[in-house]
Design brief:
Layout: H1 2-23, E1 28-31, E2 37-43, E3 46-53, E4 81-89, E5 94-102, E6 107-116, E7 120-127, E8 130-138
Antiparallel strand pairs: 1-2, 1-8, 2-3, 3-4, 4-5, 5-6, 6-7, 7-8
Length: 139
């Protein structure tokens, strides 16, 4: 009986470690097509992303001037959390149920990451019936 309990415990631990390693492969820094550089990180089992470099974004825009909340339009874009609440779906091997703030239009989109390649990730942003697939380059 003790041997069975130890075996079950070991399998559970190894499965948990494997799951975390699969989910964590998106952690890192990426350059988006709009020139922003972001860092994706994990916090309490969900994934988030913040702007770490502007690289001449929108001809030098540094403030969140398009934010629909007027009180936030003077906030700096650098350090801004723009990806929230991505969850790893182990069955589909995708990160789903996330949201992303697009500073160039001041809009929030649904976000999921569908594929991880060696030097990039494939993301899908959607709002209502509109949908766009992009590749983000890993730094």
């Amino acid at each position: 009986m003790l041997k069975l309990n130890l075996t079950i415990s070991l399998i559970t631990i190894l499965t948990t470690i494997s799951y975390a390693q699969q989910a964590d492969i998106i952690i890192g820094k990426y350059r988006l097509p709009n020139k922003l550089e972001i860092e994706i990180f994990e916090n309490q089992g969900k994934y988030f992303g913040k702007i770490i470099s502007l690289n001449g974004f929108e001809d030098g825009q540094v403030k969140d001037i398009n934010n629909p909340d007027r009180s936030k339009r003077k906030d700096s874009l650098l350090g801004k959390l723009i990806i929230q609440d991505l969850e790893y779906d182990m069955e589909e091997k995708k990160w789903i149920k996330g949201s992303m703030y697009g500073a160039e239009k001041g809009m929030h989109f649904n976000l999921k990451i569908t594929e991880v390649r060696q030097n990039e990730i494939v993301v899908i942003g959607s709002k209502y019936i509109m949908r766009k697939t992009l590749e983000w380059k890993k730094l």
